[in-house]
Design a protein that fits this description.
eight-stranded parallel sheet, two-stranded antiparallel ribbon, alpha/beta, single chain
Length: 280
């Protein structure tokens, strides 16, 4: 079984560098998918209220016969619930769905600067409550740009432990990554293989062939060597396992530079821009 290294967050908590993402995994399939991942060696599962499968995550952990404390669970606040009282009720529901007294990491899913009068600061202060009473061991954000993080720094007391953002070779998201690095905020990459778009890239295929690896593994290893936390998603058992087999090979400096050179800037983004995304 692959041993996954952990990254120490700015609050002292440790998070496994590779997590199993359950975005778009149907609720009735989540328990089996999580059980497969845990059997393969994952100890970090990333879910969200929006996904509707928190209960399946909890069932998968039970089915794997693991103690709650052996698995790092992340969930995220659903977009309609930014107002403090709504956030409190939603968080209570997350704990009920997980059947747990705490969640390891709880994130604001999107900043939604054009909704709720642009007020994500009171939302963050509500997450600070969850951290203070121990029900959220760590708190963070997702899809926050530097300007959003500047507001939190100016108006609140807690630096986010994590910022989960879109990041892959076609969209290195360098401004966010550099901002977070300067302030001790760990970066998690969602869509780490660009929703599959990088898998037939000639540069990645050449490197993968030379190493006897898949293009997905090479891309995920690029993230690992850059210090990112990665959240690959698959429900195919073989791919679930191979996405974790990243720690017995290394990319050379030349290979790392070649992959980084694939960055297309803003045109490489596959999802919405956080300044404009407003779906609730």
């Amino acid at each position: 079984m692959t041993a996954v290294p952990a990254i120490t967050l700015n609050d002292g908590a440790k998070i496994p560098q590779v997590g199993f993402g359950v975005y778009q995994v149907p609720p009735d399939e989540t328990a089996a998918a999580v059980r497969t991942a845990l059997d393969a060696g994952y100890r970090h599962v990333d879910t969200a209220q929006m996904y509707g499968n928190e209960r399946g995550v909890a069932q998968g952990i039970r089915d794997a016969e693991l103690d709650r404390g052996e698995v790092f669970i992340t969930s995220k606040l659903n977009n309609p619930h930014h107002r403090p009282d709504d956030a409190r009720r939603a968080f209570d529901q997350t704990l009920a769905e997980l059947g747990s007294e705490y969640v390891d990491l709880f994130l604001i899913h999107w900043p939604l600067p054009t909704r709720f009068d642009g007020d994500f600061v009171s939302t963050w202060k509500t997450l600070e409550e969850f951290a203070a009473d121990g029900r959220a061991r760590s708190i963070g954000v997702s899809n926050f740009e530097p300007a959003h993080l500047d507001r939190l720094a100016a108006e609140t007391d807690t630096v986010p432990a994590v910022n989960q953002v879109e990041m892959h070779p076609y969209f290195a998201n360098s401004a966010v990554r550099e901002y977070c690095a300067d302030r001790g905020i760990a970066v998690e990459a969602w869509a780490p293989i660009a929703k599959g778009r990088v898998l037939d890239n000639p540069v990645l295929m050449r490197i993968a062939d030379a190493l006897g690896r898949s293009t997905a593994q090479v891309t995920l290893r690029w993230h690992i060597q850059r210090g990112n936390i990665v959240l690959p998603k698959s429900v195919t058992p073989q791919r679930v396992r191979s996405n974790l087999e990243l720690f017995d090979f290394t990319l050379s400096d030349t290979d790392m530079a070649a992959i980084s050179a694939l960055d297309q800037g803003e045109s490489g983004r596959t999802g919405p821009h956080p300044d404009r995304f407003d779906m609730i």
